[in-house]
Amino acid sequence: MSNQELVSLTAVELRRRIGTKEISPVELLEACLKRIEEINPAVNAVTAMCVKRARREAKAAETAARRGEDLPLLHGLPTGIKDLEETKDLLTTYGSPLYRDFVPSWDNVMVGRVRAAGAVVVGKTNVPEFGAGANSRNPVWGATGNPFNPTLNPGGSSGGSAVALATDMLPVCTGSDTGGSLRIPAAMCGVVGFRPSPGMVAVERRSMGWTPISVLGPMGRTVADTCLLYATQIGPHDADPLSFPIDGDAFAEPWPVDLGSLRVAWTEDFGGVPVEKGIRQTMRAKMKAMRHLFRSCDEVDMDLGEADRCFDVIRAVNFVARYRDAYEKNREMLGPNIRANYEIGAKMTLADFAWAHGEQTNIFRKFQELYKDYDLVLSPTVGVTPFPWKQLYVEEMDGKKLRNYYHWLAPTYWITLATNPAIALPCGVDHKKMPFSLQVIGRFRGDGEVLGAAHAMEQAFMRIAGLGRPRPEIARLRKPRPELKSIVTHPPKLNARPTRALAPAAL
């Protein structure tokens, strides 16, 4: 089997073949490293790497397989860790000049669980500075390019992970989501990103532990791949008060779902989020092509109150909690998105905070009313087609100025407020021939059901013209693009020594 054929296999199929000894973890790692060497200069998705350690781990995984040992879910699979997650002895910068030399001496809980499941960590994947915004560019590593056109934005903040998956550089990559950081890059790159219910995956770096706005979760090329990773991430931890005991193994494969039994509601804009005309037209065409799959499929109207203002407050309060010390001591070292969010929050009052939490409760309750009549809610994942990465964010849409730099993310952050599990599912291309994605939203804490439904939809889409997952043209990505690193102002010191003292206390 050629390297090209090997790296293009799904994570599920790779894991099966490792278990049957049809392929070796060493062979797979070397194929992934070769693909990274060939493609990463064109997209800049994979940042710091630990090749020597990965080779040792792959060799150990090969030995275990040959001995016939019991192999965990991710055994021998090369893996990328989003550069917001502390990873032992591997440069972890958070995309910030403040941590350009930071090498943790420990794995955080999620990374430790993925390792324990047999993953071979190869390196980190690129992010915006501290994960703020949905354009994966920062002054440490530079910008990540979209695999369908490297001059365009791949989304964020899990942009490096999405691109590494879409280009077959790595079969497994982790992500996280506040306002859409799993769903948006998955949508823009033609892969799958799942925002779980809060508490399913323990998050120890949330500064406000009782606030469910930020979650960790999986990405994959397919829904089944996403489930495989998700099963290893699930579980409680004493550092996360929202986490609770649950059997992760129950999610290792998609649950069986009969699409013909499902009542589906769909919307272009949830009654108020910005969505450009081309995406609206695309959404209508996609729904027309798939509506026969379901028991019923209705376009619905909804009123989710003052969701934009509510998210403004809740997001800003979290930024104040995280970045007050950094802002006061090293303001000039923080990027514009971080400073803007902090300054918005610093001006708010306790009354604003109380109102926002009350409004989020109202939004939650209004959204759950839909599930009295429907099993799923569908929408576009992103309201715009990918735009140039040099453009930090979308300022206006269809001639109308947007509220702030993240208003274009409203299709996903409105669902963040509702807290329902949601998955970005590839669904052909949009009006600009770029990846189009459905946001498939399940019932409150209905993670297994929505993953199962998304898997069944994915399988059905493969048989319907215009709905299958799009693939980038890898041959076009073999030319390096130095401009992606043109914004680097604080290159990392790759020989930095491990230390815990530099760890950001509030990340």
Task: Describe the protein's topology.
Layout: H1 3-7, H2 11-19, H3 25-43, E1 46-49, H4 51-66, E2 78-82, H5 109-116, E3 120-125, E4 137-138, E5 142-143, H6 159-166, E6 172-177, H7 183-189, E7 192-195, E8 215-220, H8 223-233, E9 263-266, H9 277-290, E10 296-299, H10 307-330, H11 336-346, H12 350-369, E11 376-380, E12 396-397, E13 400-401, H13 410-418, E14 422-429, E15 435-441, H14 447-461
Parallel strand pairs: 2-3, 2-6, 9-10, 9-11
Antiparallel strand pairs: 1-3, 4-5, 6-8, 7-8, 7-14, 11-15, 12-13, 14-15
Helix pairs in contact: 3-4, 6-7, 10-11, 10-12, 10-13
What can you see in these coordinates?
With 507 residues, the protein is an alpha/beta fold. It has 2 domains: 3-255 and 478-485, Amidase signature (AS) domain (Amidase signature (AS) enzymes); 259-471, Amidase signature (AS) domain (Amidase signature (AS) enzymes, Alpha-Beta Complex). It is 35% helix and 13% strand. The protein contains 14 helices and 15 strands. It has helices at residues 3-7, 11-19, 25-43, 51-66, 109-116, 159-166, 183-189, 223-233, 277-290, 307-330, 336-346, 350-369, 410-418, 447-461, and strands at residues 46-49, 78-82, 120-125, 137-138, 142-143, 172-177, 192-195, 215-220, 263-266, 296-299, 376-380, 396-397, 400-401, 422-429, 435-441. The strands form 3 sheets. The chain has an 11-stranded mixed sheet with strand order 1-3-2-6-8-7-14-15-11-9-10, sandwiched between helices. The chain has a two-stranded antiparallel sheet with strand order 4-5. A two-stranded antiparallel sheet has the order 12-13. Helix 5 links the parallel strand 2 and strand 3. Helix 10 crosses helix 12 (350-369). The model has no long low-confidence stretch (mean pLDDT 95).
